[in-house]
Amino acid sequence: MEEGAAAIAKKIVEMAKQGDMNAARLVIERLVPPAKERPIFLDLPDTSSADGVARAQAAILQAVAAGDILPGEDATLAGIVEARRKAVETQELEARISALEVKE
């Protein structure tokens, strides 16, 4: 395989240069790495409260509507904000339970 790989690669490059689009696609796929996620710069409010989480969700929705972020990016950000909402909810429930236990 090692001996033939160089010859095969050379032949595919030659075919691409001659206009073979399948060969060109193979060459491009190997030369250009697939696109990775891009960094997103979105000013979100503090998410340490339920109100802040709701405002963050609204900001993400507005960013999609304005075309600032893609729907797939929205889904990722919404998942992160949802995880934060669950953490805030857990903290609030723990505080309520602790307060009830102190009253007993």
Shape label: elongated
Roughly what fraction of the amino acids lie in strands? under 5%
What is the tally of beta strands? Answer: 0
The ordered H/E elements are: HHHH
Q: In this structure, how is the largest beta sheet organized?
A: none
- On the 0 to 100 scale, the average pLDDT is 89
- Helix and strand content put the structural class at mainly alpha
Give helix % range.
over 70%
How large, in whole angstroms, is the Cα Rg?
Answer: 26 Å
Architecture overview:
This protein has 104 residues and is mainly alpha-helical. The chain has 2 domains: 2-31, no CATH class; 50-103. It is built from 4 helices and no strands. It has helices spanning 2-17, 21-31, 50-66, 71-103. Helix 1 crosses helix 2. The longest helix has 33 residues, at 71-103. The chain is elongated and about 80 Å long. It starts with a helix and ends with a helix. 6% of the residues are buried.
What's this entry about, in short?
It contains 4 helices and no strands. It has 104 residues and is mainly α. The chain folds into 2 domains: 2-31, no CATH class; 50-103.
List the helices and strands and how they pair.
Blueprint: H1 2-17, H2 21-31, H3 50-66, H4 71-103
Task: Identify the notable features of this structure and list them briefly.
single chain, 104 residues, mainly alpha, elongated
